[in-house]
Write a structure and sequence with these properties.
alpha/beta, Rossmann fold, 5 strands, globular, binds shikimate-3-phosphate
């Protein structure tokens, strides 16, 4: 297994902030699939959803993930829906160690709705949509990950330390399975 780390998890779990810090600690390059998508599209996530629809956004997401299969020394933060496609889930495993960054629903909801940059939650009743999406995706994160890390109540620094320790111990024991969740 290479040293790449792939962060998955629901909107608001902190994939980008934690990923950036993890990359700094590991001396890896930090990549964010949403940023790769917007750079290639020349428009924001909101703009892509509005102009092209979710399906085309998902196609763009798969294109960017495919490009990273041979990348090395990266920490990749993915969009919350990157696990929806079976193809993506397989690609993520090929890219690196897949870590599910989780937190309790209230924390996720507060963080996910802090900015207006998440078109899926720009609806009349965002909490209902949030609950439905979260419930449908939890099994996919579980299925897609090698490690689960619950960051509820932890600072960014504590989360980064915890993830580094979890990676270290899973590599030592060779237990890269959801059962080694921390
Ligand atoms: C999405 C999550 C977003 C972004 C897009 C769709 C999702 O990324 O990819 O708005 O389907 O959960 P974040 O998880 O970084 O917010």
């Amino acid at each position: 297994m290479n040293s790449n780390i792939v962060l998955i998890g629901f909107m608001g779990c902190g994939k980008s902030s934690i990923g950036r810090r993890l990359a700094g600690r590991l001396g890896h390059e930090f990549l964010d699939s949403d940023e790769l998508i917007t750079a290639r599209a020349g428009k924001s996530i909101t703009g892509i959803f509005a102009d092209e629809g979710e399906e085309q956004f998902r196609n763009r997401e798969t294109v960017e993930l495919r490009e990273l299969i041979d990348a090395s020394r990266i920490v990749l933060a993915t969009g919350g829906g990157a696990v929806l496609r079976e193809e993506n889930r397989q690609i993520l495993h090929r890219i690196g160690t897949v870590i599910w960054l989780h937190a309790d629903p209230d924390t996720l909801f507060t963080r996910a709705t802090r900015s207006r940059k998440r078109p899926l939650l720009e609806v009349e009743n965002p909490r209902t949509t949030f609950n439905t999406l979260l419930e449908s995706r939890l099994p996919l994160y579980q299925q897609a990950c090698s490690l689960k890390f619950d960051a509820t109540g932890l600072s960014h620094d504590q989360t980064v330390e915890g993830i580094l320790q979890a990676i270290e111990s899973s590599r030592k024991t060779g237990q890269g399975t959801p059962e080694s969740s921390v």
